Here is the input.
Amino acid sequence: MPSPNEILKKYWGYDTFRPLQKEIIQSVLDGHDTLALLPTGGGKSICYQVPALVKEGITVVISPLIALMKDQVENLRKLGIKSEAIFSGMHIRDIDRILDNCAYGDIQLLYLSPERLLNYMVIERIKKMNINLLAVDEAHCISQWGYDFRPPYLQIADIREFLPKGTPILALTATATADVAKDIQEKLKFSSPNVFQGSYIRDNLSYSVLYVDRKDEKLADILINIKGTAIVYARNRRMTKEIAAYLQKNNINADFYHAGLEMTLRTQKQDAWKSGKTRVMVSTNAFGMGIDKPDVRVVVHMDLPESLEAYYQEAGRAGRDGQKSYAVLLYNAGDRKHLEYVHEISFPSMDALRQTYRALSNYYQLGIGTPEGASFEFDFNIFVKTYRLHALTTMHAIRILQQEEWLVLSESFYLPSSMMFKVDRAVVYEYLLQNPGVENLLKTLLRAAQGQAFLNFVNLNESSIASFLKISKKKLQQQIAYIAKAGIIDYRPQTENPRITFLRERVPVENLSIDLEAFNFRKNRLYERITKAIQYAENKACRSLSLVQYFGEETDQTCGICDVCLGRHEADLSPQDFERYKEKIISILAGNPTTEKILFQSFSFKHHTKVRKAISFLIDEGILEKDGHKYQLLTDD
Here is the structure.
């Protein structure tokens, strides 16, 4: 067998592994169940890709991120590594072909979404595969203690009985508290505890929390002062567009990105940012996962995420090259109120759950007793408009229905158009003689498919075919649909919508039930995570130390480079104090510029240190200025 170092050098060109990678790889090669806790950018995928090439057989990788699976498969194939992926939305014939290749061919890595792992057809083929390793990516999804619980993960351990004796499990995640790490090992039935934990300390990353009202102005100021590539995370799609437009008006090269954009446009925007043509990407949390861009100099959060796990992962996309970088959170009292609202709305009432279930069933015309497995493309915006539903309540209701395993909603991903001939060549040529108007198109499809379309579905580059035939893409699609209607081909138009799949038989809405104990447990856990996130933003402790201790790393070493360590909180000024002093200072200065002496006379002596700090912050934020010996408010003009 080749050594791990030989594999690393041959396929990836590296001479040495990153910290803990070699130890994790050796652990699974020795047959040990292993939990790898490696922070964002720590190189988790190498930990299962290298063993997959060292040992004979096939490595099965469970991942909930379809886009990431597709990217990894494409990248592995470019390296000459035979890989496949099976996920929601694929045609049954494609799945059958891939599973056959995995069971009887020489495929080295198979990526599966957790829902697909439970499919009877998949399980039966897994029994025939020589599996050398079962890798579970995003392993925190198995734990109800975690921030991204996904019920299908709970069934992964059941597959172990079908694997060759002694096949180890490798669980990987970037963010897991001590409770979650323990739960992962228990749920996956580890033979014995075995954890490799990389340090959560990022020596080159300076964390800051800045209390500001005009976040857009402060953002522009940050991006003017900190040069280099940046990511800005915003709460929703509308904000990404508005913030990018504001930055552009201030001569900052910026663009916006979210999952609602058409796939081609998303790819163009992402490529422009990766290549440096776009400096700043303003995005929802849909951006950044799986993107390996090491020279991001600053990540700015316009709003506080609802968990420190999410914040650490997103902020950690800065400075992967080891150079000095910045993670900045812009915070004010509105963030606390928003997170309190998030907790309130994240767990809808039974009436809301039943209303959503009824609407979904009616939307797809599912009668009582419709068997499990019905699957459809799903456009959330059209759905809520059709039934005049509250978007946020409905979104969370669907999440609860997923957690209760009534249905599953896949992420949005792109599938190209594809086709397969349903008849043999003789029938095709007979059809050509009878329909000369489609002769050019059919002959072009035959050439493009190179004979493979009589055996399997093949992808169609419709833009290229339309250009060759000198017709519009829309006209081409109409002609292909016409041939499909005649029964000559099976045609699947391109799609990039999520899919919703019903996991249980359709029941009367009054029979819809949930596990109230688990529901309340998850509700309490969300409250705890939100509370910890707010404490991070509002407390005066070293930012880095607060984060690493949250994840259970034992250290008392402050970082020396965050806003707290550099004296941002030296006056012990809480957000609430700041807002109170700010209101009074502005009211005093609303009439005329005022000297420092007169201004400070309006406060008792014991508050002067905090008042001075509040004034400093207000100057930093462009709300007031000192002109000679007097302070005055700055006007918008």
Observations:
- The CA atoms of residues 29 and 393 lie 47 Å apart.
- The radius of gyration is 28 Å.
